[in-house]
Amino acid sequence: MKTKYHLYPVIPAVILFSMVLFGGQNLFAAKDGLKTVAIVPFEINAAQDMAPVRKGILHMLYSRLSWRDNVMVLPQHKIDKKLAAFGYSSGIEMDDKQIAEIAQTLQSDFILTGSITQFDNAFSIDTKIFDIANKRFMAFSQHSEKSDNLIDKVDRIAATINQKVFQRDTLTWDKIEQERQANIEKMKRKNPEYMMQNPNWQETKESYGWKIWKYLF
Length: 217
Hints:
- The protein is an alpha/beta fold and 217 residues long.
- It has helices at residues 13-21, 51-65, 76-86, 96-106, 150-166, 171-190, 192-197, and strands spanning 35-39, 43-45, 71-73, 110-119, 122-131, 136-144, 211-212.
């Protein structure tokens, strides 16, 4: 039976310790099996100022991806400082080479990038998480016609990353799976002939999988 984890914004002691010593070398080598994640400030595509929204998303992802003794999300102010030293502007899309350079500088196992696109009252959140050691990435997206759904959509992205990348089940992931199963049953009842004729009908844009990262270093 899988353990369920409540995703409260609690910063484990190991994270606080690393905040103090972040500038040193091989900070995370002593913790066997601990994975480190650096979240790059998201690119913004919107007519209005969405800097507060971007900041809120970063805080949400930090709290929801942090997993004691398993996943450490690096402190954002340290990441911003390193980005500034490289001359990268916050919120600007990075190319593959830049992502690799940042990962090496931060000694991070994973780099999470993303963008927020707003059109009228609707929005789209598109993210990629790069597995540096294995030279691969996985993409995740959430869309909504209502701007007040933003928190829920970020929560779903975090839950999917937790499950697909780090094999961590959460309450939000359980909810996503329950909704998916309910939708499958609904589709079966609605059009059983289509299910029989199209065996791959369950494969949707939310069928996540690793893709090869073209930048090899």
